[in-house]
């Protein structure tokens, strides 16, 4: 098929997305597809292509820190223009399929999906409404709780001129807690918080962005993640941390965290996690033609709580979904082809 890969974008996960895009390019070429690689936020959006089977492409390395926010408005302007007119839109309309390797921001919150839907362009992954539901962690946890899935107590707060509200203070006083943006990915700006003064400092950093802050109790137990493709939950991965939280550096720098697949846990516990991931997938509106990744962390009693569900999880060489696929006996090109097949059958 003629496949256009969208990667890069304007989010804090831009570097991760570029790495995913180049990795997916190699896999699709290996499976005999023709590929054009596009970063819609770049001044020159076509990064490579048209590439044909047998062509050799290089990869990229994810940086130690996510990009700064200072350039995001400029990148968004490029991205909107590219996706709503001109040669990039014509490339998308001429493709048999658009493979979304975007992570975070407009690529994962439903913006890009809505534009592609309006243009009548077929794409991989969930639709715009599902992405929007999954992107905001507070809303996600409300949906999961209503569906009977265990989630941690949580408080949403939009830092402003007023002081920290009492319901947030109560969580901090019972602490420790985890504070993170309610809408962001790749564990960007995730903090363990032990005091009210520390929370106020974090709040000052996000206040200018007008974002919601999610505050929830720090769960001291083991951490797991489960990928779902269509109707199949892949083997459970355990994330063995040396730091309190699984942040950006731990995710993308080799050796910063141990990732064990399949997790060394009893079969009944693994089945429970996989079933919970499937229930979360369905509760948020993911269909049998989509994929997702659900993250869990256990409380002090060993009970797993669902933290979030990722609509476009990373597909880099060190990402979790490719690791789960390997645990299922799939190669990386197998995984990418299966994502294509979900969207086209």
Summary keywords:
Rossmann fold, 345 residues, D-amino Acid Aminotransferase, Chain A, domain 1, six-stranded antiparallel beta sheet, alpha+beta, 3 domains, four-stranded mixed beta sheet, globular, Dna Ligase, domain 1
How is this structure best described in words?
- This protein has about 350 residues and is α+β, with helices and mostly antiparallel strands.
- The protein folds into three domains: about 1-125, Rossmann fold, CATH 3.40.50.20; about 135-150 and about 220-345, ATP-grasp fold, B domain (D-amino Acid Aminotransferase, Chain A, domain 1, 2-Layer Sandwich); about 155-215, ATP-grasp fold, A domain (Dna Ligase, domain 1).
- About 40% of the residues lie in helices and about 20% in strands.
- The chain contains 13 helices and 14 strands.
- It has helices at about 15-30, 70-85, 85-95, 105-110, 110-120, 130-135, 135-145, 165-175, 195-205, 250, 265-285, 320-325, 330-345; strands at about 1-5, 35-40, 45-50, 95-100, 155, 175-180, 190-195, 215, 225-230, 230-235, 235-240, 255-260, 290-300, 305-310.
- The strands form three sheets. Strands 9, 10, 11, 12, 13 and 14 form a six-stranded antiparallel sheet that branches. The protein has a four-stranded mixed sheet with strand order 3-2-1-4, with helices on both faces.
- Strand 9 and strand 10 form a beta hairpin.
- Helix 1 (about 15-30) packs across helix 13.
- The chain is globular.
- It starts with a strand and ends with a helix.
- The model has no long low-confidence stretch (mean pLDDT about 90).
């Amino acid at each position: 098929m003629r496949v256009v890969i969208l990667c890069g974008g304007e989010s804090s996960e831009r570097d991760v997305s570029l790495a995913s895009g180049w990795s997916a390019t190699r896999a699709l070429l290996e499976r005999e597809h023709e590929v054009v690689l596009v970063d819609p936020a770049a001044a020159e959006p076509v990064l490579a292509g048209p590439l044909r089977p047998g062509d050799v492409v290089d990869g990229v390395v994810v940086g130690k820190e996510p990009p700064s926010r200072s350039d995001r408005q400029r990148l968004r302007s490029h991205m909107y223009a590219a996706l709503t007119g001109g040669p990039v839109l014509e490339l998308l309309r001429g493709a048999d399929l658009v493979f979304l390797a975007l992570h975070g921001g407009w690529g994962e919150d439903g913006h890009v999906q809505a534009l592609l839907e309006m243009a009548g362009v077929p794409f991989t992954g969930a639709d715009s409404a599902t992405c929007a539901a999954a992107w905001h962690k507070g809303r996600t946890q409300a949906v999961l709780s209503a569906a009977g899935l265990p989630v941690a107590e949580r408080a949403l707060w939009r830092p402003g001129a007023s002081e920290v509200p009492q319901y947030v203070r109560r969580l901090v006083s019972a602490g420790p807690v985890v504070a993170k943006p309610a809408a962001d990915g790749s564990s960007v700006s995730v903090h363990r918080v032990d005091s009210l003064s520390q929370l106020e400092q974090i709040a000052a950093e996000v206040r200018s962005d007008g974002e919601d802050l999610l505050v929830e109790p720090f769960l001291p137990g083991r951490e797991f993640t489960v990928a779902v493709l269509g109707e199949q939950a892949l083997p459970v991965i355990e994330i063995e941390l040396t730091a309190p939280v699984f942040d950006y550096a731990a995710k993308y720098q080799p050796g910063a965290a141990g990732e064990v697949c399949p997790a060394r846990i009893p079969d009944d516990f693994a089945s429970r996690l996989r079933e919970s991931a499937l229930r979360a997938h369905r509760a948020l509106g993911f269909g049998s033609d989509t994929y997702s990744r659900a993250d869990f962390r256990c409380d002090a009693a060993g009970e797993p709580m669902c933290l979030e569900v990722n609509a476009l999880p990373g597909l880099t060489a060190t990402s979790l979904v490719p690791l789960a696929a390997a645990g299922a006996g799939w190669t990386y090109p197998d995984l990418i082809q299966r994502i294509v097949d979900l969207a086209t059958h």
